[in-house]
Amino acid sequence: MIRAGGFEIRAVDTGRFRLDGGAMFGVVPKTLWQKTDPADERNRIEMHMRALYAESAGRRILVDSGSGTKLDDKMVDIYEIECDPLRKVLEDHGIDPDSITDAIATHLHFDHGGGYTYYDEAGELALTLPNATHHVQRRQWEAATGPNEKDRASFYPENFLPIEKAGKLNLIEGESEILPGVRVVPTDGHTPGHQVVIFGEGEGTVMYCGDLIPLASHINLPWIMAYDHFPLSTLEEKRRLLGEAADGEWILFFEHDPAIAACRVSRNDKGRFEIAGTVETG
Fold first, then answer.
1. Other CB atoms within 10 Å distance of the CB of residue 149
2. Mean pLDDT per 10-residue run, the chain (282 residues)?
3. Smallest Cα–Cα separation from 249: which of 195, 186, 211, 206?
4. Whole-number Cα distances in Å, 192 to 88, 136, 161, 253
5. Per-residue CA distances from 229 to 107, 148, 214, 242 (Å)
6. How far are the Cα atoms of 93, 126, 181, 254 from residue 215, in angstroms, in the given order?
7. CA 87 to chain centroid
8. Exposure pattern of 184-201 as b/e (b: 16+ CB <10 Å)?
9. Which residues contact 214 (CB under 8 A, 6 or more apart)?
C-alpha cells in the first residue's frame, strides 16, 4: 500500500490482455522494445489493466475500470482478454463496489472504461459503481460520443452512456482539483481529454499515468504509441511531467505494465529518465 497526501492507495488488477507490440511502440524498432516487452507469435505483448483504489476521509475513489466483460468473442480473441466482472474483482479485494464515491476515468477507450457498466441478471445495462460520481474530461466525452474513424473501434457507447443517463457524470474542464488532494491534468497527445490523476503534493505524490506512460518502458521519451493522436504532444507532456516526477520524487503508477506497478524515476548522467526504484502497491 502507498500513502500519499492522506490517501491510502493500492492497485486493483482488473485483468490482462495483449496488444500489438509495433502499435505500442510506434517508430521504435522491434529489436529494441522486445528486450523489455517480448511479443508472442502474433506480435502481441502482455499488458495488464491495473486500476487504482484510493481512500481518505470517507472518499473511496477508483481510477479506471479495465475492459469489463461485455466484449464479444472476436474482440476477446484478438486481444486475448482475461477479465472478471469489476464488481467481483473489487469484492475479492475487500472493497464494496457500492461504497465507491468517485470514479475517475483517464479516458474512455474500452480497456480503461469498459468496466463501468455490466449486464445484470435481466440482461439490462447497469452501473458497476452505482453510487459513484464519474469524472471525465469534457473533451474526452465529446471524443467518445462523436468518434472519428480512427477512434471508433475503441469507444463503445454501452460503456459510458448509462453513466450520463443515471445522472452520475461530472464533466471536467481542463486541469482541476476535483477532490481535496486529487488533481487531474489533461494530456491530449493520446486522445483529446485524456487525463493523468495526481494524488497529494510534494514528496509522496502519486501520479496515475494512464496511457501517457502505459508501460514502464515508455519512460523513454521517444517511446510513444502509434495509437496516439499527437505524438509530439505526448513527447512534451512526458518530458514535463517526468521532469516534475524526478524533481519531486513522485511515484508513477502504471496501468498496463505486467511486471512493474509503480516506481520512482530519476535522470541519468545523460539527462535521460530511468527507473530509480520500484514501489510495492499492496
1. 6
2. 90 98 97 97 98 95 98 96 97 98 98 97 96 98 94 95 98 96 97 97 88 98 97 98 96 97 96 94 82
3. 206
4. 31, 11, 18, 21
5. 13, 11, 15, 20
6. 23, 31, 25, 6
7. 18
8. bbbbbbbbbbbbbbbbbe
9. 24, 47, 225, 254, 255, 256, 257
The residue written with cell numbers 493520446 in the block is 190
- Which residues does 273 contact at the CB level (< 8 Å), separation at least 6? 219, 220, 221, 242, 246, 265, 266, 267
* Residue (of 46, 41, 94) closest to 217 by Cα position: 46
Strand pairing class (251-253; 262-267)? antiparallel
Which residue has cell 463503445? 156
CB neighbours of 240 closer than 8 A, spacing ≥ 6? Answer: none
The secondary structure of 154-171 as a DSSP string is: T--HHHHHHHHHTT-EEE
Task: Identify the residue whose cell numbers are 462523436.
Answer: 146
Cell of 8: 491510502
Residue written as cell 539527462? 271
